[in-house]
Design goal:
The chain has 86 residues and is an alpha+beta fold. The chain contains two helices and three strands. A three-stranded antiparallel β-sheet has the order 1-2-3. It starts with 8 loop residues before the first strand and ends with a helix.
């Protein structure tokens, strides 16, 4: 995670549910969930293809968090402008 965005908080459960880990990524008020299979977690340190797949999943989720933040900021700016123009 540090290589992607150190400000993102990650919560990984201790045990999987139905062989899947539901992982929470949070940055500020925004949160995204990703699922990664137990097999991928086990093979992560040993298989480059799985590392690449999981890295892409995490980077995509972090990018979605940033889009959420940007959309929220745009909405807030519109609300402020609307308030001042009344």
């Amino acid at each position: 995670m540090k290589g992607t965005d150190a400000a993102v908080q990650v919560v990984i459960p201790v045990t999987p549910s139905n062989s899947m880990f539901l992982i929470s990524l949070t940055k500020g008020p925004n949160r995204k969930f990703i699922t990664i299979s137990e097999d991928d977690i086990i093979d992560l340190p040993n298989e480059a293809s799985i590392l690449a797949k999981v890295t892409k999943t995490v980077k995509d989720a972090v990018a979605a968090l940033l889009r959420q933040r940007d959309e929220r900021d745009r909405r807030e700016r519109r609300e402020v402008r609307t308030t001042y123009h009344r």
